[in-house]
Amino acid sequence: MEALQFTGKTKKLQYVQIPVPKITEPNQVLVKVAYAGVCGTDLHIIGGEFPCSEDTVTLGHEFSGTVLDVGPSVNNVKKGDRVSIDPNEGCRCCDYCHSGNPHYCNIGGINSTIGIHRHGGWGTYALVPNHSLQKLPDGVSLEQGALAEPISCLSHGWDMLSPVTVGSRILVLGAGIIGNLWVCLLHLQGHRRVTVSEPNVSRLNYTKKLDTGYDLITPDQLRKNKETVPGYGFDVVIDCSGYCPAIEEGLSLLDKGGRLCCFGVAPPHGTITVSPYQLYLKEISIFAVNVNPFSFVKSVGFIEALGTRYLDYSKLGVEVFTLKEYQKAMDLLKVGKIAKAVFKL
Question: Where would I find the Enoyl reductase (ER) domain in this sequence (predicted)?
């Protein structure tokens, strides 16, 4: 089978031919991968900016497919079922896991993610534990199922951010795939006073295709509005860029009682400067979102609600590639010509 594998020690990504994995544990499931997404975290991993396994691993933590075979103890899925894979899990033993916070787990959580620390979906087949599978309803396509993992993270973020009163002034920083998915979610929830700031005009043009009527501007225009428009500010800022200067700019635009949601993943060395006095004066709240604890099933509900009105690859700026075209996909992502790359297998 074909696969894209990354070796942490050498920071090398390679297209390879490897044997099809075999079921060796009773709870394992062999999945024929259909679609596998490239996440911003994957780019950080390949660039040596995000922790991953030092060994050689098939990357890809956002993927969907069809069950090909199951181990003897598996009873929640069967051959032929269409599934999406939740790549995150806890150890089920520590205080964090027993407190309902498996994403804090020092053994599991982001320390054992499928496609980062264990073999993932950038290959023809993937071997995963049965508890990591989410069956897809008939109305959800495999293309949409490949977005279940990022949408499950949005679902966790939405739970943390809610309630957001309709009519709130909301700023979304970054119009990559995560920013566009937040745009979809906010529009679905009835929010109309939304501004999206993105330096890459190509990405803004994709966001425009979503036909939300939102104010789509560049960071230069955002700063100009701040300087020239009286009372210009926001009640909620959602950072989807992980870019520290953008986060600082968003923080400065929060009005009294405002909330900053740090959703984009910044590199480990990234820092921002915060004025504690301004936090006090405005009673600003800052929080971050870490993956998807118990929110994967909610993501399927969101996918059903969003439907093709929003989850259309051509509207979201998603382009499909073969695994052999991985370098082209990475290059287009790095220069912002597309919002997301997805491999079709």
Answer: 8-343
Which residues touch 68 (CB under 8 Å, ≥6 apart)? 30, 31, 32, 79, 125
Give dist(CA 189, CA 259) in Å, integer: 18
Interior angle at CA 245, CA 339 and CA 281, nearest 5: 125
Mean pLDDT of all residues belonging to the chain: 96
Count of Cβ atoms closer than 10 Å to residue 130 Cβ: 19
Please list the residues that pair with 29 across neighbouring strands: 70, 128
Preceding omega of 163 cis (within 30 degrees of 0): yes
> Does residue 111 have a pLDDT over 90?
no
Could you read off the pLDDT of 135-153 as tens digits, one per residue? Answer: 999 999 999 999 999 999 9
pLDDT of residue 323 exceeding 90: yes
Model confidence at 267, in pLDDT bands (50, 70, 90)?
Answer: confident
Segments of the chain assigned E as strands: 2-7, 12-17, 28-37, 56-58, 63-70, 82-85, 125-129, 133-135, 170-173, 194-197, 215-217, 234-239, 254-262, 285-288, 318-321, 340-344
Closest CA to 59 of 102, 106, 12: 12
Return the bridge partners of 234, or none.
254
- Compute the distance between CA of residue 131 and CA of residue 332 in angstroms, rounded to an integer: 34
Sign, CA dihedral 242-146-29-43, equals: negative
Q: Specify whether domain 2-147+311-344 bears CATH 3.40.50.10240.
A: no
Q: Which sequence spans correspond to the domains of the chain? A: 2-147+311-344, 153-288
Residue 286 and residue 263 in contact, taking contact as beta carbons nearer than 8 Å: no
Same fold, 2-147+311-344 and 153-288: no
pLDDT greater at residue 334 or residue 191: 191
**153-288 carries CATH number 3.40.50.1000:** no
pLDDT for residue 19? 98
Tokens of 235: 């009640």
